[in-house]
Amino acid sequence: MGNRTKNRLHIPDAPFRPGDKPDFSHLDIGVAGSVERPPCNSKPMEIRDLAYNLVRVLDDDGVAHGDWNPNLNPDVLREGLRTMLLTRKYDERMFRMQRQAKMSFYLKCTGEEAVAVASTMALQPADMLFPTYRQQGAFIARGADLFQEMMCQVMNNELDPMQGKQLPIKYSSAEKGFFSISGPLTTHFPQAVGWAMAAAYKGEDDIALAWTGDGSTAEGDFHYALQFAATYRAPCILTVVNNQWAISSPQTIAGGENTTFAARGIGYGLPALRVDGNDFLAVYAATQWAAERARAGLGSTLIELYTYRVEGHSTSDDPTGYRPRNEPEFWPLGDPIERLKDHLIQLGEWSQQQHDELAQELEDYVTECWKKVDAMGNINDPEYAHIHSAALFEQVYKEMPPHLRKQRQQLGR
Amino acid sequence: MAQMNMIQALNSAQDNLLAKDPNVIIFGEDVGYFGGVFRVTAGLQEKYGKQRVFDSPISEGGIIATALGMGVNGLRPVVEIQFSDYIYPAFDQIASELAKLRYRSNGMFSAPVTIRTPCGGGIRGGQTHSQSPEAIFTHVAGLKVVMPSNPYDAKGLLIAAIEDDDPVVFFEPKRLYNGPFDGDPHQAAIGWNTHPKGEVPEDYYSLEIGKAEVVRPGNALTIVTYGTMVHVAEAAVKAAGIDAEIIDLRTLLPLDIDTIAESVNKTGRCVVVHEATRTSGFGAELSAQIQESCFWRLEAPIERVTGWDTPYPHAMEWDYFPGQQRILDAVNKTLQGG
């Protein structure tokens, strides 16, 4: 059989495996400021090269370059820095608490804070967010109550807004425009397009923004989203967070070897941008560009946010089994918090001392919230399992049908 | 009152609600300009405009997902899956997303989506135009599942489904679109003008979801059925002169077990009839619930009459389809049992 054909399955691999020395010098990450910013009303066909380049604003010294620089007020930059840092402090605390068996599950977004925070900050409060489980930064940017809406949810305690119905970290807030997080990724991608179609139908200016991952672009839902977005010019921003890893599968398994994820948009006639996801200014500017297009009736934009998943997939994952332990240190696009901090310092709007003070203040705040939550008990307490029993049968339907009433009586709670 | 077939009744239901509620919008494959391959949305785009009634890409998963998003953003979408045989690509969006959204967000988000879909056989449609997948959806917490058997019920129930704040899968037995069907393909087809339920008000009315109807009172046994088989069962017992009570479920989920139990406790004998395949069919659920409620009053084992556990065939359609004789065999067995 092997003698008759040159065909063999090509099984894409990761660039480095445990034991290898990571070296990302093969990546073409371009130079900050080198990609031109086209007008928002450009035709998708005229800007196809943006799907293959990398929009970067900040260089390695924290200096902003080029016409993608959104020239934000330093107060906005400090707000972004604070939100990203709070997200990281929250993640660190929750991760440690999961390791102490206070909760069943947790998942960090370390290194990907800008992807969530800058995108959210570039939108209006009435715009709708369709997050995955790794955009806790977006919820914080929308002003989530860290204690009640986040920690109590993660602990499934009596103040949990979802009353124990959802796995930890599957937040939801109608009031803050943060759509209920589903388990799998990308099911929400075409749902976001539908939300945006409804906004257009009603003649409203609100737009939707959805995030998904590199791995789950392989799902049919991803293509449904692009198809409907393109057909109906839905005012929607579709972003692919390419963090290089889908649990243990490198982005090459999702088809990232010979093209970019942004380029998926080209086949649908959508404008597509590829952006340094660890660069707060670049993410902000790209979102702004796409939002302006959407509000102008020009429809959806696909944005690939190029980043790196610094930690394991979740507390149930050990990345040293499939990649070098020190690989994150070699990622060439740095850390989004450090880069924005350097930029603010370089502008003369921030100092290391202020930064250290802010870090301490946020850590104290997280600790204070945690102490309140911890005092409410956790899943190791025998009675804890039943605190939400009364809610078990509620919200299956708007009104409880007879068969559920009967089953609730059988449970006897 | 007007004479309507089921297509016209379903069209009238949507016409009424498009006029009544600006948040109702309709989309699906071929439903816009053309008015649907079965003409159920004929004329609606012309009357209400392209913003409200439009064609979708051939993407069932995309249709349900976008309808969900629209529902979250205040609309009341009515979507058509052209044949229920094509609903499977959308199953994840229906079962894991649409049905669960209210629960997983503890009521913060929900989507009042109505999924219309023609089902069932008897039209020489072969394997991919004849399936009856209703039982699969009755297994999904958070959905409502409706299947009318005549024009009057179809209109009232579709209006109720669209106005329901929970997602509804609305099955339309396509063999009944143009007239009742007694299960004999060699007889000339008859129209709904021969049937009292072909009289349909042109104005708005709705029928409560979750209520079965006794369509033929009787004392000898109870036949529990729905969709096309209501008419096949009626014809069978009429021809044989059997005093059967026939219950048309109309809604499968939530199930009106009270109406069923009242009848079976009276007759003591029960035959369950559906067109779908047998194993894990909805008849299994009916049998289980009936014996839970009526065991001490049953005089004979509950019989099931169903399609065979095969894919829906083409040339052998009338061997597959559970016609009058198969129903009578089961009825007689039940009457002789005990």
Q: Kindly provide the radius of gyration of chain A, computed on alpha-carbon positions and rounded to a whole number of angstroms.
A: 22 Å
How would you spell out the order of helices and strands of chain A?
HHEHHHEHEEEEHEHHHH
Percent strand of chain B equals: 15-25%
Strand order of the largest sheet of chain B: 3-2-4-5-7-6-12
CATH class of the largest domain in chain B: Alpha Beta
* Total helical elements of chain A: 11
| Count of spatially separate domains of chain B | 2
The main sheet of chain A comes to: 5 strands, parallel
* Rg value of chain B: 19 Å
**Largest beta-sheet details of chain B:** 7 strands, mixed
> Can you tell me the overall shape of chain B?
globular
Strand order of the largest sheet of chain A: 1-2-3-7-6
Largest interface: A-B, 47 and 43 residues
By CATH, the architecture of the largest domain in chain B is named: 3-Layer(aba) Sandwich
Please report the number of helical segments of chain B. 12
How far the N terminus sits from the C terminus of chain A, by CA atoms, comes to 65 Å
Cα distance spanning the termini of chain B: 47 Å
Mean pLDDT value of chain A: 96
Q: Helix proportion of residues of chain B, in percent?
A: 25-40%
β-strand amount of chain A: 5-15%
Commentary on this structure:
The complex is a heterodimer of chains A (413) and B (338). Chain A is α/β, with parallel strands linked by helices. In chain A, 35% of the residues lie in helices and 8% in strands. Chain A has eleven helices and seven strands. Chain A has helices at 74-99, 113-121, 136-141, 146-155, 188-202, 220-232, 280-295, 327-330, 336-347, 352-374, 402-411; strands spanning 128-130, 208-213, 236-242, 245-246, 249-250, 272-276, 301-306. In chain A, strands 1-2-3-7-6 form a five-stranded parallel β-sheet, sandwiched between helices. In chain A, strands 4-5 form a two-stranded antiparallel ribbon. The radius of gyration of chain A is 22 Å and the shape is globular. Chain A starts with 73 loop residues before the first helix and ends with a helix. In chain A, 50% of the residues are buried. The mean pLDDT of chain A is 96. Chain B is an alpha/beta fold and 338 residues long. Chain B has two domains: 2-200, Rossmann fold (3-Layer(aba) Sandwich); 213-336, Rossmann fold. Helix content of chain B is 35%, strand content 18%. Chain B contains twelve helices and 14 strands. Chain B has helices spanning 6-20, 44-48, 60-72, 91-98, 101-104, 134-138, 151-163, 228-240, 257-267, 282-294, 317-320, 324-336, and strands at residues 2-3, 24-28, 53-55, 76-80, 114-119, 144-146, 168-173, 199-200, 213-216, 221-225, 244-248, 251-253, 270-277, 303-307. Chain B has a seven-stranded mixed β-sheet with strand order 3-2-4-5-7-6-12, with helices on both faces. A five-stranded mixed β-sheet of chain B has the order 9-11-10-13-14, with helices on both faces. A two-stranded antiparallel sheet of chain B has the order 1-8. The longest helix of chain B has 15 residues, at 6-20. The chains are: A alpha/beta (413), B alpha/beta (338).
